[in-house]
Amino acid sequence: MSIWWSLHLRREAASVPLARRFLLGTMETAGVDPDISFDLSVALSEACANAVEHGGDRSGLGEYGDCGAERSPADSGQYRVTAYLDGEKCRIEVADLGPGFPARRALRPAAHTEHAEHIERAQHPEPVGAQPAFAAYIPCVAESGRGLDLIEQLADHVQFGNRPGRGAVVSFDKVLKWREGALLMV
User: Smallest Cα–Cα separation from 52: which of 143, 149, 167?
Assistant: First the structure.
Protein backbone atom coordinates (compact mmCIF):
# COMPACT_ATOMS: atom_id res chain seq x y z
CA MET A 1 0.00 0.00 0.00
CA SER A 2 1.11 3.57 -0.63
CA ILE A 3 -0.33 7.03 -0.02
CA TRP A 4 -0.17 9.87 -2.55
CA TRP A 5 -1.72 13.33 -2.31
CA SER A 6 -1.42 16.74 -3.89
CA LEU A 7 -2.55 20.09 -2.48
CA HIS A 8 -3.03 23.29 -4.45
CA LEU A 9 -2.60 26.10 -1.93
CA ARG A 10 -2.90 29.86 -2.00
CA ARG A 11 0.36 31.71 -1.48
CA GLU A 12 -0.67 32.88 1.98
CA ALA A 13 1.12 32.33 5.28
CA ALA A 14 -1.80 30.25 6.61
CA SER A 15 -1.16 27.61 3.94
CA VAL A 16 2.20 26.62 5.47
CA PRO A 17 0.87 25.11 8.73
CA LEU A 18 -2.03 23.59 6.77
CA ALA A 19 0.39 21.64 4.53
CA ARG A 20 2.53 20.67 7.54
CA ARG A 21 -0.49 19.37 9.51
CA PHE A 22 -1.74 17.44 6.48
CA LEU A 23 1.65 15.73 6.14
CA LEU A 24 1.94 15.02 9.87
CA GLY A 25 -1.58 13.56 9.96
CA THR A 26 -0.84 11.32 7.01
CA MET A 27 2.40 10.08 8.55
CA GLU A 28 0.87 9.51 11.98
CA THR A 29 -2.00 7.53 10.46
CA ALA A 30 0.40 5.45 8.36
CA GLY A 31 2.65 4.75 11.38
CA VAL A 32 5.81 6.67 10.49
CA ASP A 33 8.34 7.21 13.30
CA PRO A 34 7.66 10.63 14.92
CA ASP A 35 11.28 11.83 14.51
CA ILE A 36 11.18 11.20 10.75
CA SER A 37 7.75 12.86 10.55
CA PHE A 38 9.08 15.92 12.39
CA ASP A 39 12.13 16.26 10.10
CA LEU A 40 9.98 16.05 6.97
CA SER A 41 7.39 18.47 8.36
CA VAL A 42 10.07 21.09 9.07
CA ALA A 43 11.56 20.62 5.59
CA LEU A 44 8.08 20.93 4.06
CA SER A 45 7.39 24.08 6.08
CA GLU A 46 10.59 25.68 4.77
CA ALA A 47 9.79 24.75 1.16
CA CYS A 48 6.23 26.08 1.49
CA ALA A 49 7.43 29.30 3.14
CA ASN A 50 9.76 29.84 0.17
CA ALA A 51 6.88 29.29 -2.28
CA VAL A 52 4.73 31.78 -0.37
CA GLU A 53 7.55 34.33 -0.19
CA HIS A 54 9.10 33.97 -3.66
CA GLY A 55 6.49 32.16 -5.77
CA GLY A 56 5.20 35.13 -7.80
CA ASP A 57 2.95 38.16 -7.57
CA ARG A 58 0.38 37.87 -4.75
CA SER A 59 -2.22 39.85 -6.69
CA GLY A 60 -3.15 37.00 -9.07
CA LEU A 61 -5.15 34.31 -7.30
CA GLY A 62 -6.10 32.19 -10.31
CA GLU A 63 -5.95 28.42 -10.51
CA TYR A 64 -2.56 26.69 -10.42
CA GLY A 65 -1.29 26.51 -13.98
CA ASP A 66 -3.74 29.19 -15.18
CA CYS A 67 -1.77 31.04 -17.84
CA GLY A 68 -4.55 32.93 -19.57
CA ALA A 69 -3.82 35.77 -21.97
CA GLU A 70 -4.16 38.39 -19.24
CA ARG A 71 -2.01 36.58 -16.65
CA SER A 72 1.58 35.34 -16.85
CA PRO A 73 2.69 32.22 -14.91
CA ALA A 74 4.56 34.42 -12.41
CA ASP A 75 1.26 36.07 -11.47
CA SER A 76 -0.22 32.89 -10.01
CA GLY A 77 -1.32 33.16 -6.41
CA GLN A 78 -1.00 29.42 -5.79
CA TYR A 79 1.58 26.71 -5.36
CA ARG A 80 1.42 22.91 -5.28
CA VAL A 81 2.58 20.39 -2.67
CA THR A 82 2.72 16.71 -3.61
CA ALA A 83 3.69 13.88 -1.24
CA TYR A 84 4.17 10.18 -1.84
CA LEU A 85 4.68 7.64 0.96
CA ASP A 86 5.46 4.04 0.22
CA GLY A 87 7.02 1.24 2.23
CA GLU A 88 10.52 2.68 2.27
CA LYS A 89 10.52 6.44 1.69
CA CYS A 90 8.56 9.65 1.51
CA ARG A 91 9.03 11.98 -1.45
CA ILE A 92 7.75 15.56 -1.34
CA GLU A 93 7.64 18.18 -4.09
CA VAL A 94 6.77 21.86 -3.73
CA ALA A 95 6.29 23.77 -6.99
CA ASP A 96 5.40 27.40 -7.57
CA LEU A 97 4.95 29.61 -10.60
CA GLY A 98 7.34 32.38 -9.59
CA PRO A 99 10.64 33.48 -11.11
CA GLY A 100 12.50 30.32 -10.02
CA PHE A 101 15.92 29.91 -8.50
CA PRO A 102 18.87 32.06 -9.60
CA ALA A 103 20.79 30.53 -12.48
CA ARG A 104 23.68 29.44 -10.25
CA ARG A 105 22.54 28.07 -6.88
CA ALA A 106 25.97 26.41 -6.67
CA LEU A 107 27.54 29.80 -5.95
CA ARG A 108 26.78 29.26 -2.26
CA PRO A 109 28.23 26.11 -0.70
CA ALA A 110 25.97 23.62 1.03
CA ALA A 111 25.50 24.13 4.78
CA HIS A 112 27.62 21.13 5.72
CA THR A 113 30.63 22.48 3.76
CA GLU A 114 30.50 26.12 4.86
CA HIS A 115 32.40 25.49 8.09
CA ALA A 116 35.10 23.54 6.23
CA GLU A 117 35.44 26.39 3.71
CA HIS A 118 36.01 28.93 6.49
CA ILE A 119 38.65 26.73 8.13
CA GLU A 120 40.41 26.19 4.78
CA ARG A 121 40.41 29.93 4.02
CA ALA A 122 41.76 30.77 7.47
CA GLN A 123 44.56 28.22 7.11
CA HIS A 124 45.39 29.09 3.48
CA PRO A 125 44.38 32.70 2.72
CA GLU A 126 44.14 33.65 -0.95
CA PRO A 127 46.73 36.07 -2.34
CA VAL A 128 45.64 39.69 -2.60
CA GLY A 129 43.75 40.23 -5.85
CA ALA A 130 43.00 36.53 -6.41
CA GLN A 131 39.51 35.56 -7.55
CA PRO A 132 37.57 33.55 -4.93
CA ALA A 133 36.66 29.94 -5.70
CA PHE A 134 32.97 30.84 -5.37
CA ALA A 135 31.12 34.12 -5.22
CA ALA A 136 28.56 35.70 -2.90
CA TYR A 137 29.09 33.73 0.29
CA ILE A 138 26.07 34.19 2.56
CA PRO A 139 26.91 33.79 6.26
CA CYS A 140 24.72 31.63 8.50
CA VAL A 141 23.24 34.78 10.08
CA ALA A 142 21.82 36.02 6.76
CA GLU A 143 18.09 36.77 6.71
CA SER A 144 17.44 34.51 3.71
CA GLY A 145 18.76 31.27 2.30
CA ARG A 146 18.79 29.25 5.50
CA GLY A 147 15.58 27.37 4.64
CA LEU A 148 17.11 25.62 1.65
CA ASP A 149 20.13 24.61 3.72
CA LEU A 150 17.81 23.29 6.42
CA ILE A 151 15.94 21.19 3.86
CA GLU A 152 19.27 19.75 2.71
CA GLN A 153 20.15 18.82 6.29
CA LEU A 154 16.79 17.21 7.13
CA ALA A 155 16.22 15.16 3.96
CA ASP A 156 18.26 12.33 2.45
CA HIS A 157 18.11 13.58 -1.13
CA VAL A 158 17.19 17.09 -2.33
CA GLN A 159 16.77 18.67 -5.75
CA PHE A 160 16.28 22.37 -6.48
CA GLY A 161 15.22 23.19 -10.00
CA ASN A 162 13.37 25.46 -12.36
CA ARG A 163 10.69 24.71 -14.88
CA PRO A 164 11.29 26.93 -17.92
CA GLY A 165 8.81 29.78 -17.63
CA ARG A 166 6.94 27.97 -14.86
CA GLY A 167 8.71 28.60 -11.54
CA ALA A 168 10.77 26.79 -8.93
CA VAL A 169 10.53 23.17 -7.80
CA VAL A 170 11.96 21.79 -4.57
CA SER A 171 11.79 18.02 -4.20
CA PHE A 172 13.18 15.96 -1.36
CA ASP A 173 12.89 12.51 0.09
CA LYS A 174 13.76 10.63 3.24
CA VAL A 175 13.98 6.95 4.10
CA LEU A 176 11.19 6.10 6.52
CA LYS A 177 11.29 4.35 9.87
CA TRP A 178 8.09 2.79 11.13
CA ARG A 179 6.36 2.28 14.45
CA GLU A 180 5.45 -1.26 15.46
CA GLY A 181 2.34 -2.39 13.53
CA ALA A 182 2.44 0.47 11.02
CA LEU A 183 -0.02 0.35 8.11
CA LEU A 184 2.50 0.87 5.28
CA MET A 185 5.48 -0.97 6.76
CA VAL A 186 7.24 -3.22 4.28
Answer: 167
Q: Report yes or no on whether pTM surpasses 0.90.
A: no
pLDDT per residue as tens, the chain (186 positions):
789 999 999 999 999 999 999 999 999 999 999 999 999 999 999 999 999 998 876 444 444 444 443 344 444 689 999 999 988 999 999 999 988 888 754 434 444 444 444 334 444 444 444 433 323 334 444 556 688 899 999 999 999 999 877 799 999 999 999 998 887 775
Q: What is the 3-state secondary structure (H, E, C) of the chain?
A: CCEEEEEEEECCCCHHHHHHHHHHHHHHHHCECHHHHHHHHHHHHHHHHHHHHHCCCCCCCCCCCCCCCCCCHHHCCEEEEEEEECCCEEEEEEEECCCCCCCCHHHCCCHHHHHHHHHHHHHCCCCCCCCCCCCCCCCCCCCCCHHHHHHHHHCCEEEEEEECCCEEEEEEEEECCECCCCCCCC
How far lies 179's CA from each of 85, 182, 183, 185, in Å?
15, 6, 9, 8
